[in-house]
Amino acid sequence: MAQNTEQDRIRRKKRKKLLKLRKNRLGCSVIAFMLSGLITLVLLALVLQSFFLISLSSKIESEYASLQMLANMYQADVSEGKEDAIRLLDLTGRPYLLKEADGTLLYQNGENTCGTLSGSFVSTTGDIFISIATDPTPYTVYEDTKYPIMVPDSRGYITVDWAKLMRKMTENPLDEQLVTDDTIQMDSHLLLLPLWIEVTPEGGTQRLIFRTELTENLSELILLIIILLAMLVTGLLLSIILLHNLISDLIRQHKVKKLFFTDIATKGHNWMWFLLRGEILLHKARRIRYAVAEISVVKYRTFCVCNSIAEGEQLLGRIQNTLLSRLEKKEICAHSADGSFAMLLRYTDDETLRQRIRQMMTDAAGEETGHSIAFHTGVNVIPESAEKRGIFRRNDADLEKEYNNACAACATLEHSDDSGIAFFDEKLVEEQKWIDTVLQEQQSALQNEEFVVFYQPKYDPRTNQLSGAEALIRWQSPKYGFISPGKFIPIFEKNGFITEIDHYMIAHAARDQRRWLNAGYHCVPVSVNVSRAHFIESDLAEQIRDIVDAEGTPHELIEIELTESAFFDDKKALIRTISRLKSYGFTVSMDDFGSGYSSLNSLKDMPLDILKLDAEFFRGETAGTDRGEIIVTEAIRLAKSLNMRTVAEGVEIKEQVDFLAAQGCDMIQGYYFAKPMPGNEFEQRIAAPADPLPEQPVSET
Ligand code: C2E
Ligand code: CA
Ligand code: CA
């Protein structure tokens, strides 16, 4: 359980990764790229401004210091009572304002362009813009209303109005500026920036506000701008290269992704795509009930062998196109593996879906003119965990697991060459689990002798004498209890273990016979079933002979039963084996004659001793009817004319026994006389051959 959750977690993680892969991040990448470009530009502008302001701030500070000195000298003159103290101020040659502490203008020199907005410019020990200086001596400054380039901002810091500065610089060509006096001046070296600075003379109450022109070395500024521009251009170039790489990477990624979700054989979508798209659909299309299906071309690999792989792939491509054209909205189909396609289809009920799929298979097969093809389809209706007002909640839907169930349903059709549809149900899971269990247990069960031999006696209906028996396997498992052969023999036949079982049965039957002989019982021939899987072994007759010889049992006490289906395999090999078995003294019988596809022809060629009439003759629809009796009569007659004895199987009622006796049937093996029984019970019958026969069927123990 814990392991399952861990595996589920790993699978969920894997799927998340794939989902991420599908998402297209082109838009995000371009936006991120543009954003980073913008940030770089802003940063460069800030650097430029910072440089400029740092340089200006030191100039303001020195300007302030000299103006303060001037003001102090003025104050000294005023204190001394000098009449022309004001003259000192005129010496600067700059416009200035002399105000009372309350702001009343006392004197004005030159044009008053002093702005009303004032800013407290903080001395620049740190960053001019954001940090509060450690020595926050504020200088009160005003912008120049005529040329408001140096502007105190709302926080009280001085900033440069770049737009205005640039405009001024372009409006005034260099030669014109040389002639102007109080405008922003620019010669080839200097950039003059007007600003009003207020100082308070020490010991005085008046305020002095001077217009000052801060100078910037133009060539230095231009150099700075050039450096920054060069940095910008380099940055831009790098960005373009990066963008180019980014785009080509994205294109490459897109191509890889396309390749990742494209099927090589059909050129359509592949399984990975199906899984991701399907899961998205299951989560989003919540009003639709879905079934997942595996539709698989019967014997696709044989088709490729008979034609070519390329033709096989073309066939798959055509089939996929047909399937795609039959899909409704919000349904998907992709090539999953080999000759199989995965489909996610809308589901209303079993019958409607069955009809649709049948039509799809007919259409796809109908497209093929040169070849005849068939399909097997396994369907699994996706379980709905909860439904509320027509909306399905499928948060826990695992498409891979559901598709696997569809494949399991499809696998149940593998023995048929005709088209067919199988729906998945829980019984199938149980069956599959049982098949797994058998596979796990079979070898140890054989070693621990958990397989036991039961014997079903055969009686002569004319004399009611015991004249033979069939050895039938039973599995007495300490874990699972008593298991009848129908539950494990077909599994062994598929997985090949049947050959070991048959050897085991021959050996045990021969051993029992030897023991009974030694005990002096009236032994009768015991027939043992040999599965058709054995007939590929060319030395089968010798193997059987050696097994029987190893127990020291006379060959005439062992009969070999071959099922009728074995007669369709390699006929020559079969005749050879039968002849060899007979030459060693074994009796050979054809089991289940009349079931499935009887081949009278095989009877003609096979040197068989006994014909076992299938139980269907006595239990099937024609049993007891005139027609049924005619067939049985004729089969017995046919056997006799071919020098064969007959055994009727599955006889349960007295009328049948009487009828068969009248027809000259040699032996009857059926519940009327006896059910299969354990060896020790059978032993009692051969120990006392003249035992009275039961009138009613006995029960198997
Ligand atoms: P089978 O070889 O045709 O065996 C005859 C089956 O018919 C036996 O079933 C037997 O119990 C049953 N039977 C006999 N008389 C009657 C009757 O009057 N009424 C009914 N309803 N049934 C009757 P069982 O033992 O269950 O075996 C089933 C099949 O399993 C066998 O069919 C045979 O094909 C296979 N099998 C059994 N033991 C072995 C074995 O050791 N090796 C191989 N290869 N196959 C075996
Ligand atoms: Ca048999
Ligand atoms: Ca039989």
Total strands? 25
Shape: rod-shaped
Low-confidence stretches: 122-136, 173-183, 689-699
Total helical elements: 21
Give the helix level as a range of percent.
40-55%
The CATH topology name of the largest domain reads TIM Barrel
Could you state the CATH homologous superfamily of the largest domain? EAL domain
Q: Tell me, what is the CATH class of the largest domain?
A: Alpha Beta
**Beta-sheet strand percentage?**
15-25%
What is the residue-mean pLDDT, rounded to a whole number? 84
What is the domain total for the residues?
A: 4
Structural class: alpha/beta
Radius of gyration: 52 Å
Bound molecules: ligand C2E, calcium ion
Largest sheet: 10 strands, mixed
Q: Can you name the CATH architecture of the largest domain? A: Alpha-Beta Barrel
What's the N-to-C terminus distance?
39 Å
Structure description:
- The protein is an alpha/beta fold.
- The protein folds into four domains: 50 residues, no CATH class; 178 residues, no CATH class; 154 residues, Alpha-Beta Plaits (2-Layer Sandwich); 182 residues, TIM Barrel (Alpha-Beta Barrel).
- Helices cover 47% and strands 21% of the residues.
- It contains 21 helices and 25 strands.
- Strands 16, 17, 18, 19, 20, 21, 22, 23, 24 and 25 form a ten-stranded mixed beta sheet that branches. The protein has a six-stranded antiparallel beta sheet with strand order 2-1-8-7-4-3. The chain has a five-stranded mixed beta sheet with strand order 10-11-9-12-15, sandwiched between helices.
- A hairpin with a 2-residue loop joins strand 13 and strand 14.
- The radius of gyration is 52 Å and the shape is rod-shaped.
- The two termini are 39 Å apart.
- The C terminus is likely disordered.
